[in-house]
Every structure is written in C-alpha cells, then in structure tokens.
Design goal:
Helices cover 47% and strands 4% of the residues. It contains ten helices and three strands; from the N terminus they run αααβββααααααα. Mean pLDDT is 79; it is low at 1-14 and 217-231. This is Tyrosine-type recombinase/integrase.
Length: 232
C-alpha cells in the first residue's frame, strides 16, 4: 500500500460537532470505496472498502481497526475481538454479513500464508497502516462521492463514521418501536464506551439534527452533563 500522503489529520477539538452522514451519503461513500482503483503491488483496493466498513458498520475507532490482528477475527462466530482499547476495555464486536464477506475475501487474498499474529492492515513494506495514510484515502472518497469537507475543524472526520453508526442505530431502533433506553447499555458495550453516559454524549452532540432521538432518551437527560470534552 502507498506510504505517500497529502493530507494532515485534523487535531481533535473539544468544541467540535460531529458530522452525521445521511444514509444516502453512506451509500455513496461505499459505492466509491468499493471502486477504489487497483494499483500494482498493493492491496489498497481491498483495504479501503474493508477498513471503512469496520468504522461504520462495526462502530470501531480508527486505532482499533489499525491494531486488528488475524487472531482477532473469528469467522465462525462472526465476531471481532478488540483487545484493551480506549479505557483499557476489551470487547467482542459482531460483524454483519457484508463485513464478513469483505474480511474473508481480504484474508484469502492478502493473508493466505500469514501467521495469526500478523496485523490485518499493513503498508507495502509490512509496517502498520498509518492513520495519516488512511485519512488520505478517506478525503479522496469524500471528494469523489461529492461529500463536501468543511476544512479543518468542520469535518467530516473518519471518526464521524463511528458517530454516524451510533446515531443511525438509534434511529433504526426508534423506527422499529424498540425501547431505546433499555438498548442503550448494549450499544454502549458494543462501542467500547467506559459507561452509558459517554454513549449519551453522542446524543447531546447531535441534538439539533436529531432532536427526536434526544426526546426518546429524555429520562436520562436530567442526569447527564452538558457536552464538554471530546469523547470517542
């Protein structure tokens, strides 16, 4: 995979409001990712669609995807093992059929003879994939998908795929008539948050765009602090 990159990763901002992708934008994003050009001697065209699916469809943090090893993937149980991530928490993350399909294809081609201790994603030299390089691909996809980037501090950022996953999951539960208050602890555990209140922060961060969600979660709002530091 290429090691040359043109973009700098934006620094985290405590005042930053997440960019929540619409469902249409998500579809357009992955249509472009799935057509990422194949280049000689690299597997970028396979890395890109899989990596970003892990961020959105599995709600992973960027560092969690970068640090995945072959041993962390259980094809039979259709799960990923995230070991000692943020806050020192480990967890199992179920995969959708779509993500599983991409992982199987990727491993069969890229890691056909790899040891189970090998990293899932590496560059052309076998070194760990850098966040800077994958961010370059992210910006390229946004541009080709016609999704405007607001410049430094305005997003979208790669982490906003994770934010979008959480919001879209809650939206789907509401549409399905599910009791979101009872499901929030499961979402919190799935995303590897330290506690349920960190998951609630996602709702406060997106209050203006998704007021229906915060209304549905109203019983929690009286005990949850206002948005302060950035939470991932």
């Amino acid at each position: 995979m290429e090691s040359y990159c043109n973009f700098e990763i934006p620094k985290k901002s405590h005042a930053f409001k997440p960019y929540i992708f619409s469902v249409i934008e998500i579809n357009e994003f992955f249509e472009v990712a799935d057509r990422y050009p194949k280049k000689k001697s690299t597997y970028t065209h396979l890395v890109v669609p899989l990596f970003f699916r892990l961020l959105y469809y599995c709600g992973l943090r960027c560092a969690e995807a970068i640090n995945l090893h072959i041993r962390d993937i259980n094809i039979k149980n259709q799960t990923l093992y995230i070991e000692k991530s943020k806050y020192g928490k480990s967890r199992y993350v179920p995969m959708s059929e779509d993500v599983l399909k991409h992982i199987i294809e990727y491993i069969n081609i890229v890691h056909n003879n790899s040891d189970t201790d090998a990293l899932l994603f590496t560059n052309v030299h076998g070194d760990p994939l850098s966040e800077k390089c994958i961010y370059t691909k992210f910006r390229n996809i946004l541009w080709k998908a016609g999704i405007m980037h607001g410049g430094r501090g305005n997003g979208p950022r790669m982490h906003d795929l994770r934010h979008s996953y959480a919001v879209h999951r809650l939206q789907q539960w509401i549409e399905d008539g599910v009791n979101t208050n009872s499901m929030l602890p499961y979402l919190s555990a799935y995303m590897g948050h330290e506690n349920i209140y960190m998951t609630e922060e996602y709702l406060h961060l997106t209050y203006e765009q998704f007021s229906l969600i915060t209304q549905k979660m109203e019983p929690f709002n009286s005990v949850i602090p206002k948005v302060g530091d950035y939470l991932g």
